[in-house]
Amino acid sequence: MMTDIRSMNLSELTEYLTENGFEKFRAKQVLSWFRQDVSSFDEMTNLPARLRAFLKENAYLAKADIVRTRRSAIDDTVKYLFELYDGEYVEGVLMRYHHGLSVCISTQVGCKMGCTFCATGKSGFSRSLTASEMIAQIRSAETDAGERISNVVLMGMGEPFDNYDNVIRFLRLVSSEDSLNIGMRHITISTCGIVPRMREFADLQLQCGLSVSLHAPDDAARSRTMPINRRYPIDEVIAASKYYVKKTNRRIRHALSCKPHPGQQCDGSGVSEKLDQKAECLCQYPVRRRCQRHRTQNARL
Ligand code: SF4
């Protein structure tokens, strides 16, 4: 099996290379090439031929090549279709805010959660992404934009907490100086509410933003569109949200009712009462605007 070398941190890379008979300092050399976003081991010209040959034979460089780009006619939003090393595709969105560029990336090819309003949910599940493939999406968008991306949202295809270990690895890597050095406070994870993972994530106290997609103000309505609600109902999700706030002192966003049922008016009052002061219920914002944003981030290319 080929080794996903770009998902390694410095100590793992050092161990990998020394175990295979190469000098310790080679790890830093290889990492410096990752920072330059090379696409082949042949480009790592300061490595000896023996090491390049070893890497070509035993490892691969994860990629997320942009194969389709759609630029919005009304703002600076750009939608990408990325191709991964094995021919699978995922989507991403680049958005410009007053504080800089933000990119929404995918964490899985497809999704198991089956939300009825979501094209990804209907398309089934293929596989989870590695940490290096998440980073590759940011690098590709950054290269296309020609400037640094300062904020990242894990809100594209897939449920991040259904790919927990790779997402945690991604967070630790992307925030390190050896990688893109994007601080945890500039990264937001969006979840449909996998309660045990929310609590586990809270215990790590990583200081990431957390956004919870509720989409409906009560269990009956939520279960109709989000099967996960049958396993983790709203009260459990809110209790886990409060636990996250308590452990991290960060705010949580709760997205409500992007697509209300006919005749249903979502004012979020039922949920708002259950949230503590540090949590924010997005249903207090104009529904129309929120829906447009959701569509922008999730529409298929
Ligand atoms: S909304 Fe999110 S969690 Fe639900 S199916 Fe789509 S990608 Fe998966």
Summarize this structure as a short list of keywords or feature phrases:
alpha/beta, 301 residues, binds iron/sulfur cluster, 2 domains, DNA polymerase, domain 1, single chain, two-stranded parallel ribbon, nine-stranded mixed beta sheet, 12 helices, disordered C terminus
The name of the CATH topology of the largest domain is TIM Barrel
Mean pLDDT across residues? 87
Tally of separate domains = 2
Strand content: 15-25%
| Total of helices | 12
* Biggest beta-sheet profile: 9 strands, mixed
How many strands appear in the DSSP assignment?
13
CATH superfamily of the largest domain: Aldolase class I
Rg of Cα set: 20 Å
**Which H/E pattern describes the elements?**
EHHHEEEEEEHEHEHEHEHHHEHEH
- Coarse shape: globular
* CATH first level of the largest domain: Alpha Beta
| Name given to the CATH architecture of the largest domain | Alpha-Beta Barrel
User: What are the bound molecules?
Assistant: iron/sulfur cluster
Helix content: 25-40%
Q: Give the oligomer, counting copies of the same chain as homo and different chains as hetero.
A: single chain
Poorly predicted regions? 283-301
Tell me what the structure shows.
- With 301 residues, the protein is an alpha/beta fold.
- The chain has two domains: 3-60, Orthogonal Bundle (DNA polymerase, domain 1), CATH 1.10.150; 64-298, Alpha-Beta Barrel (TIM Barrel), CATH 3.20.20.70.
- It is 38% helix and 21% strand.
- The protein is globular, with a radius of gyration of 20 Å.
- The relative contact order is 0.10.
- The structure holds iron/sulfur cluster (SF4).
